Amino acid sequence: MTESKALTVQEERERFKALLNKTNKARPNKDDLLTLRAMLRDYPGLWRMAGDLTEHAIDLVLENIKGTPAVKESLEAGRLALRDELGYQQGTALERLLIEHVVLCWLRMSCAECRYEHSARTEGRTFAQADYQERTLTVTQGRYLRALETLARVRRLLRLPSLQVNIGVAQQHIVAGTPAASGPGGYRAGRRWGRP
Questions:
Q1: Tally of structural domains, the chain
Q2: Is 189 or 102 the better-scoring residue by pLDDT?
């Protein structure tokens, strides 16, 4: 990318931020809203600056962590590294959405783990507080594992080989070794549809 093109992109982002500030109120100017819509239409990636709710949720999780700025910066770097290790840059749009969800669930689970451990070391903790922390941890672990399973399942489905074989009149679609279409007359593997 040339320097002039980079400046143009940076200028557009600054213009977009200024427009967001103008329109981010109860009764924005209609002309500003029309300009905002036009920019979002012309530059589809800009919506992430204000409308990416997953990124906003991640920011809220990081803000609520009780730690030094160094810890928060480390977590930010760690979550970006985890995202990249899961293949965010090379993934399809669906994979990228799922990877963002995995990272969010990982952050929530890690925070729940820390709160659980901190709570376990606190004297005077009631049974209700311990039970709440235990259930919170269990729920966040379940969400994290389901997010990982979903990502793995989608990746497996995206990579299934598909082969189409035409033999005379019969057509067979084979996905991962399983015939999916019938031959002439509704026959499939020697059986007629509707018959056992």
A1: 2
A2: 102
